[in-house]
Structure formats: C-alpha cells, structure tokens
Amino acid sequence: MVLQKNAPFYTLAMDPDFIRMKGGNMALMASAYQKRVSPLLFDIVLWPILISRSHWALVVVKPKLKQVLHFDSLGGSAMPPEVQKIRTFLAALNEEASHYAVVNVAAHSDLPQQEDSSSCGVYVCLMFNISLARK
After folding, report:
1. What was the pLDDT predicted at 7?
2. Is the pTM of this model over 0.85?
C-alpha cells in the first residue's frame, strides 16, 4: 500500500497481490484494514490486478463518486473475478460500497487497446496517469 498526497486529493495504490492474501478472505482483510486506514477515505484508489496470472489490468475506485472503474487493455466485456473480490472487500469495509457502480471503461471508451500479448503492464501505467489526471 502506498499513500500519497497529490494536491488537492489523496491517492492510495493497493498491492496487486492483496486479493490473494489471507486465502482471498475479503472480510478478514477488511477487518485488518479498518484497524489501519480504510481505502474508502481516499479520493482515488489505484489497484493493479493480475488476471489469471497472465494479464495486468487496473481497477480505480472513486469512493466519493461511488464508482469502481475497470480498465482492461484487451477490451473484453467480461468482468474478471478479481474485480468482484475488490467489490466484496469494499462492501466488507462499508455496506454502502456494495452499491458502487462498476464500469468496464475499456468497453465504453476510445482508450487505446494493446495490439500485442505483452504490453499490458505499460497500459496499466498509462491508465494510472490518465486516472490521476482526470480525477
């Protein structure tokens, strides 16, 4: 977890391995986080995810807007199970978060898509920058 104050908003970057920790028990993880700092207190939470141990994507949580945005450079319309695990974690932190809108951004935008099988990590870095610039 990386905490950073980027005037005028606070950003939290989560560990990509987070959703596999503690056997993937999101309620247990939420309990541990509530004792430290809740991601829901931040303006933006950047969460790289590893899908099927072979493809990087990005989840951006915007608690104030009640949104969970999924950026996937392959542009698929299916929501990976890792995104649902993040929603479960957020809901365990605060019941209201279970009602956040989940948007597959790549499927609804003109964002660039990767044209090879190896540049997904670069795409995630690009989406970090775009997410912070758009707040």
Report:
1. 42
2. no
